[in-house]
């Protein structure tokens, strides 16, 4: 076993992750929790770390291994909790040998010790650099969040909290805490180790689910008369939550990606999801059941701009063109669901994005061409829907659309 496994993974993937070429989910080799934590941490702070390093270099250099060795050192010395400075520097010296940088070890050692004596003043960095936000993403985030920008930008540089959705509060265990009075089913664990071995997981009493999605579930109606469709179902969180709330309703879970079906099936089975049919196909090609559904949830593919704390590589992928591309697909999904929906039924249109191009603009475009569309007002802050930014960490959007009873 290589003692520098985590560093090697960073070296192997950091360029692709921070150039928008790959996501962590697309890495085709297993990552240990330690390896993933280091990779995500450096991805999260990549722009800031590079700028900080440049403050300590006497001469600019683009030598990747040299820069990466120092960036790993800076990250561990300055941005991790309770660092053991001597052990970190000793480890970086060994890493320099591993990466054939023995001739630069004196320089590396001097820079790291200089950083300990004179830590970088992040507050003096340009704001976009301080929060490691590419300029397009920075400008969009600032435009969308307004006065909430600073708290949110700071939050996305921190490791996100882990939340679970407890289906019934009487299954609360002594391993859990429910810190939010308004969301008694939103729980956290006192210890995050071996989550899938925690009490109630295998029995299907809870599932990992971020706060934005849990907030969306609070808008579900008390009753649905008829078939429910989860149009973009994997990994199954919405499908399972819908089944738990409406156990007697037939549910159809549609998922286009074949590599996600096994996990979808496992999650539904674990949570005793009877009365659920799984269909692996493109929702746009799905003609629907013989009886028109009364409720369709479209959790549309999007930029993921609301979950960059959990998936920091996303912020390096977003551009005006990607937003336009997502919007085109989102419009098609919504139009197809509308045609399929039973008169009097509801569509939940949601994203994990905070950008209006993927949210209100989609509903606004749709409303211009469908005369009988009836968006249900859920917030005064948005024209058609509501944008969530829960605990400054979990962003998303929900619009609720009702089809009139006399609609064709």
Notes on the structure:
Helix content is 39%, strand content 13%. The protein has 3 domains: 123 residues, Orthogonal Bundle (N-utilizing Substance Protein B Homolog, Chain A); 49 residues, no CATH class; 191 residues, Rossmann fold (3-Layer(aba) Sandwich), CATH 3.40.50.150. The protein is an alpha/beta fold. α1 runs parallel beside α2. α12 links the parallel β6 and β7. Strands 5, 6, 7, 8, 9, 10, 11 and 12 form an 8-stranded mixed sheet that branches. The N and C termini lie far apart (64 Å). It contains 14 helices and 12 strands. The chain is elongated, with a radius of gyration of 24 Å. The mean pLDDT is 92.
Structure described in brief:
39% of the residues lie in helices and 13% in strands. With 408 residues, it is an alpha/beta fold.
Distance between the termini: 64 Å
CATH topology grouping of the largest domain? Rossmann fold
Low-confidence stretches: none
Instruction: Please work out how many helical segments DSSP would assign.
Output: 14
Spell the H/E element sequence: HHHHHHHHHEEEEHEHEHEEHEHEEE
Mean pLDDT: 92
SSE order and pairing:
Layout lengths: L4 H14 L14 H12 L1 H11 L7 H15 L6 H14 L6 H13 L9 H4 L4 H11 L3 H7 L8 E3 L9 E2 L8 E4 L16 E3 L2 H7 L10 E3 L6 H9 L5 E5 L5 H10 L5 E5 L14 E5 L20 H21 L5 E6 L8 H10 L4 E3 L9 E5 L3 E9 L6
Helix pairs in contact: 1-2, 3-4, 4-5, 4-6, 5-6, 8-9, 13-14
């Amino acid at each position: 076993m290589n003692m520098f496994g985590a560093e090697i993974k960073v070296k192997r993937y950091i360029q692709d992750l921070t150039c928008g070429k790959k996501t962590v989910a697309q890495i085709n080799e297993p990552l240990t929790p330690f390896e993933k934590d280091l990779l995500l941490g450096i991805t999260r702070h990549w722009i800031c770390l590079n700028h900080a390093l440049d403050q300590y270099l006497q001469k600019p250099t683009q030598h990747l291994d040299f820069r990466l060795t120092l960036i790993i050192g800076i990250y561990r010395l300055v941005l991790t909790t309770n660092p053991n400075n001597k052990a970190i520097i000793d480890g970086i010296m060994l890493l320099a040998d591993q990466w054939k940088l023995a001739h630069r070890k004196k320089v590396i050692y001097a820079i790291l010790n200089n950083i300990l004596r004179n830590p970088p003043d992040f507050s003096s960095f340009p704001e976009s650099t301080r929060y490691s936000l590419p300029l397009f993403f920075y400008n969009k985030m600032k435009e969308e969040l307004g006065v909430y920008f600073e708290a949110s930008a700071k939050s996305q540089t921190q490791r996100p909290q882990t939340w679970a959705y407890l289906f019934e509060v009487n299954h609360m265990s002594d391993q859990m805490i429910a810190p939010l009075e308004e969301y008694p089913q939103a729980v956290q664990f006192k210890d995050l180790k071996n989550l899938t071995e925690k009490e109630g997981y295998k029995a299907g009493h809870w599932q990992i689910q971020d706060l934005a999605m849990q907030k969306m579930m609070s808008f579900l109606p008390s009753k649905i008369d008829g078939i429910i469709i989860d149009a973009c179902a994997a990994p199954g969180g919405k499908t399972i939550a819908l089944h738990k709330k409406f156990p007697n309703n037939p549910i159809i879970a549609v998922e286009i990606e074949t590599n996600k079906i096994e996990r979808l099936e496992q999650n539904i089975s674990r949570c005793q999801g009877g009365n659920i049919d799984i269909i692996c196909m493109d929702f746009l090609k799905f003609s629907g059941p013989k009886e028109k559904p009364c409720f369709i949830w479209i959790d549309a593919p999007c930029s993921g701009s609301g979950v960059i704390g959990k998936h920091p590589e996303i912020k390096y992928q977003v551009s005006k063109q990607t937003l336009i591309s997502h919007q085109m697909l989102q419009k098609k999904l919504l139009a197809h669901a509308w045609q399929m929906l039973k008169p009097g039924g509801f569509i939940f249109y949601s994203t994990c994005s905070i950008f209006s191009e993927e949210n209100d603009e989609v509903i606004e475009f749709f409303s211009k061409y469908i005369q009988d569309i009836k968006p249900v007002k859920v917030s005064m802050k948005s024209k058609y829907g509501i944008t969530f930014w829960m605990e400054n960490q979990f962003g998303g959007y929900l619009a609720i659309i009702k089809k009139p009873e006399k609609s064709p």
